[in-house]
Fold this protein.
Amino acid sequence: MSFSSLGLSAPILKALQEEGYEAPTPIQAKAIPVILQKKDVLAGAQTGTGKTAGFTLPLLELLSRAPKTEAKPHVRALILTPTRELAAQVEQSVDTYGKYLPLKSTVIFGGVGINPQIATLKKGVDILVATPGRLLDHVGQKTVDLSKVEFLILDEADRMLDMGFINDIKKVLSILPKNRQNLLFSATFSDEIKALADSLLNSPVLLEVARRNETGGGISQALYILDKEKKRELLAHLIEDGKWTQVLVFTRTKHGANKLSEFLSQRGITSAAIHGNKSQGARTKALEDFKSNSVRVLVATDIAARGIDIDLLPHVVNFELPNVSEDYVHRIGRTGRAGNEGSAISLVCGEELEYLNGIQRLIKKEIKQIFLEGFTSKQVYVAPEKPNRGKGKTQTRDQKIRSERDARNGGQSGKPTSSRDGQAKKPDNRDKRPWEKDKKAGNNDSRAPKSYSTNTRSDSGHSRKRNYDK
């Protein structure tokens, strides 16, 4: 099957030919004809199979067929993505495939100035790619008009749900025209995605070209089981010994990504980190340097699991396993894309064995284990101890207060210790009840007059102070 047989026009075919695309992938072959029939679509395919072209190509075709009704472009198609990197990638695909069409597109996301985006939107665009949060910022400032949207595409919809965008999506849906074509593309089909589809899509065509959460067939998977402290050394060894020139490494935390990138750089391995705490400029530069092979290693958190599209990326390493099993599929899907081969390595310590079991159950496959002398070792999973809530074994609140107070007083209950200069310390009254507090000198005589002060409110609403002597 060729792209020309799918009903695409000459300008789009010319752009595809220049990019070296010869035949559509399975998801493209199924989705493009259905979308051109103006039907709603719920499409799922494993990551790296060409989903982006699966919806951008027919979208460009339909928009180019319809005659323009106004001189100034207006937003006719809205594409929502979960991350900035993915938004930029999608808009680049729109620009590449539609470069011979009289259509304008732009991308808006957070982390950068909003004024240049406002200026671009003011000139008019046909296709708008956006992240939900920044789109709602523009809606609130009335700098974007969505009243004439004809097409809505949710890309990586499962990731948007994972990141908590469901309320933002509902807000966007509430201001869009009811009469539109809806396309929902996702790397996986979860029950939550199907529930969203039921509320969004109108008699959709269901397209699925791979089993749910299936990993790519061209990806070789392996793992090393070792002590947590040896992970950094093993990673450096694999890169140096294997002469890896380009490897994407995943960590669970932003701090961990920074520390690992610094370690590799100190070993003479060029590296950069990318995560949510980095400015958008820093994230863009790190990704560009990695794509151009200026750095050998890109250390990333899961923010990059969906938004990085690198041709022929040879290696992905899970320095730490994700605690959500589905994220493993998305991570390793950065390699072995579009039918190419790739390698996915995981470094697993004892506390991650439960994560490993969950991943293997999900993908219905046992990952090959590699033994390497000097690095790998047997690990045993030990579940964290749960707090003992049994009666008689847990201190009461008062017991806890007293024991803390005794510790501050040198272990002698109620007896103050000496300060550094040898002077006696004042009694520690911080945690005592009012009636337990030590009386100050001169107040031990119960016959001494006591003055109590209280605030009362008069009928006129003003406070006045009364003193009572006893």
About this structure: Residues 412-426, 439-470 have pLDDT under 50 and may be disordered.
